[in-house]
Design a protein that fits this description.
Elements (H helix, E strand, L loop, with lengths): L3 H6 L22 H10 L6 H29 L5 H21 L4 H18 L10
Length: 134
């Protein structure tokens, strides 16, 4: 079980602030994922264990809202709500960013870890299948 002390020992990586000083010629951040993570951090209202719980429950809840839109389109024979799903995906992105921040990471690092994992699975021919460590 994660304790309050565990949560308080995890600090948001302040080193992503360096990304804000690096911009492309068009003015966009060189590292938009880390910049988004930092921006999202400014919106967080809770702290400690409560924050971790809120972030993870928010992530699950917003993911459920995407699934709900699909269910309604299947059940009602309605057109899939692309615009509504985009908004919910934005909420998922926010909760993903602040959850990553809460554990001392950011979206850029999470994306890099995921790309490394999936590239390894692709190279080994195990994209399909089950189990975390394939």
């Amino acid at each position: 079980m994660i304790t309050q002390e565990d949560i308080e020992s995890i600090r948001y990586k302040s080193d992503i602030e360096e990304y804000n000083s690096k911009f492309n010629e068009d003015g966009t951040p060189v590292n938009a994922l880390a910049a988004y993570s930092q921006w999202a951090e400014g919106l967080v209202l809770t702290k400690g264990y409560t924050r971790l719980l809120e972030n993870i429950l928010g992530l699950v809840g917003e993911t459920g809202e995407v699934a709900e839109k699909l269910k309604k389109s299947l059940r009602d024979g309605a057109t899939f709500d692309n615009d509504g799903v985009k908004k919910e995906l934005g909420d998922i992105l926010y909760y993903l960013a602040v959850t990553a921040n809460c554990i001392g990471s950011n979206l850029q690092e999470i994306a890099e870890i995921n790309m490394e994992k999936l590239n390894s699975r692709k190279e080994r021919g195990v994209l399909q299948g089950s189990g975390d460590n394939r």
